[in-house]
Amino acid sequence: MESKIGKIIFGVSVFGMTLIGNSFLHPVFAEGLGVGKVTGNYVNVRTEGSLSGSVITQVSKDEVVTVLEKQGDWYRIRLSDGREGWIYGEYLSVRSSNGVSRGDTGEVSVGVVTGNYVNLRSEGSLSGKVLMQLSKGTQVEVLDRQNGWYKVKLSNGQEGWIYREYLSVRSGVYASRGEVDRSLVDKLIDFAKSFLGTRYVYGGSSPKGFDCSGFVSYVFSNFGFSLPRTADEQANVGDTVTRDSLEKGDLVFFKTLGSSIINHVGIYIGDGQFIHASSGAGKVIISPLNEGYYLSHYVKAKRVIK
């Protein structure tokens, strides 16, 4: 009887649920084991790797965290707001950092500017000199975090500070500074294909139904990439690539149905094909890129995984 009660208490305490954290903020990009995705709802984050640790907060299913270390059956993690804590291993799916491509490899945090005319300052405070203003959708590399400000590097090498409210950070994602880890791309495409036939729902961004940009953002978020919600906003993220240099995982954009702006997006899967949520077909499908309707309505492509 005592054994059964103990198991019940353990189950409630963990799946009630348990993560660890302290109240201090740290940078979101420290060295670690890789990236983890929470597999349960209301999972507790605790102050130490045991049930005796105090509950700091609870995390939701599919939330992405940085995995810092493992001790026994527990993982020490870092949340997107910088807090650290412990989560029971049964409720975390970990993607190891070992499968990174060749080259100068390291953990890279990428941020996307979420507002228009966002000031880039010389230091992390309002007293810092405004160096320039950034547009919504601008992608930057995150170098540091202090007191609610992110130190970032632009694509031209310029560095500065952005207030946290105007930056969406994809934290703890390991990437090569040289050749891309193609196995990651293959896994992303396989994941996307698992939704073939899922119905089209305008404004949808879940397996219950997708629209085009909702499908893309959902697939990429599963691998730690935070993308804007709409197709025209997604078209401002990443590096522009020509159609003849497309690689698997690139985003392809279109103007359809007489639209004057980009209003459709899909994921290039190789062999001249892309996967997308089609309003015309009413579901997620694979279509040819180099012939027919989508050839004549193609606008550009962007590379987010690099």
From TrEMBL:
Keyword terms, alphabetized: Hydrolase, Protease, SH3 domain, Thiol protease
InterPro entries the record matches: NLP_P60_dom, Papain-like_cys_pep_sf, Peptidase_C40, SH3-like_bac-type, SH3-like_dom_sf, SH3_domain
Return one Gene Ontology term, BP aspect: proteolysis
State a single Pfam family of this protein: NLPC_P60
The GO terms describing molecular function are: cysteine-type peptidase activity
**Can the keyword Hydrolase be found in this entry's annotation?**
yes
The similarity annotation says:
Belongs to the peptidase C40 family.
Protein name per UniProt: SH3 domain-containing protein
